[in-house]
Description:
Layout: H1 9-16, H2 22-49, H3 76-79, E1 92-97, H4 104-115, E2 123-128, H5 134-140, E3 145-149, H6 166-171, E4 176-179, H7 182-186, H8 194-206, E5 210-215, H9 219-223, H10 227-239, E6 248-252, H11 266-283, H12 286-291, E7 294-296, H13 305-309, E8 316-319, H14 328-332, H15 335-340
Parallel strand pairs: 1-2, 1-8, 2-3, 3-4, 4-5, 5-6, 6-7
Amino acid sequence: xxxxxxxHPLLDGLLDSERMTSHVRALIFSxxxxxxxxxxxxxxxxxxxxxxAYIGAPSSLTRGSTNxxxxxxxxxxxxxxxSVSASAGRKFxxxxxxxxxGNRDSIKTLIDGLNAGSxxxxxxxxxxxxxxxxxxxxxxLRKDFAVSGQNSWVGGQGAYTGEVAAEMLKDIGCExxxxxxxxxxxLPEIKETDExxxxxxxxxxxxGLGVILCIGELLEEREAGRTLEVCERQMAAVSKEISNxxxxxxxxxxxxxxxxxxxxxxxxxxxxxxxxxxxxxQNISPEVSxxxxxxxxxxxxxxxxxxxxxxxxIDGFLVGGASLQPDFLxxxxxxxxxxxxxxx
Length: 344
């Protein structure tokens, strides 16, 4: 047949050879034609088997767009997968802030319920009773749960009526103290400033306590778009006083969600946690950013804790009212979803 349209140099040389027989020419032509057809079939098979490689794959122009026509539908579990690399080395942490609640009998009942729970692994649990019951709690609470003060003084012992020094907390077996809680920042009878909280943090760390450092915005600050500005300001005050963050756990608690029954969505909480981690990387160090645990607090309960726990930058919870209930242990168990990487 006519093979004048074949243009490959090697084939041209072979076809032009005087020694080439018509049978050999036909054979070569047939091989070339079969090769082209096979290539086309392979390409078509790949497109059919892997439509996601072509359909809905976001480009640099559409990435982040809310246009759902350009988004692939992902299974729920894949959407909430926890980043293993992001959480590497950060042990899940659940704190229970009992606030100004309880009496000897109710606290004994609560402790008995906590003590009856199963052993836990891969999670650090801390309970913060009112100051008069700190020693009793430490003496009776299960030893794998640590005890925390809810506040400490800006310095050492002395003529400071009503205050509790960090040394006193250490003396009765406390390992932690909560500082900067929104109730101490915003209650008109207290009104602690960023600078006072920063000095308290430094002194407590110097005396060997771990610090649960609370930050968060008021409702009007969120509505004004100032959430990150407020949280960064609160963090910056502390970063001026301390250089070693090894024993600091940051608790992001949007004030509008504390005790109100309202809760930030997992996406809202993750957004702030991610921003705070980036702020630490830029303003303190990448190492501190990677190692520091950031907790979420604000109406955490057994119904919402699992999905919150699965977010990559939520390393645990600081729990208020729900920590006074027996099912606080269900919130503690949410660490299993942080480790596994997804909520049910």
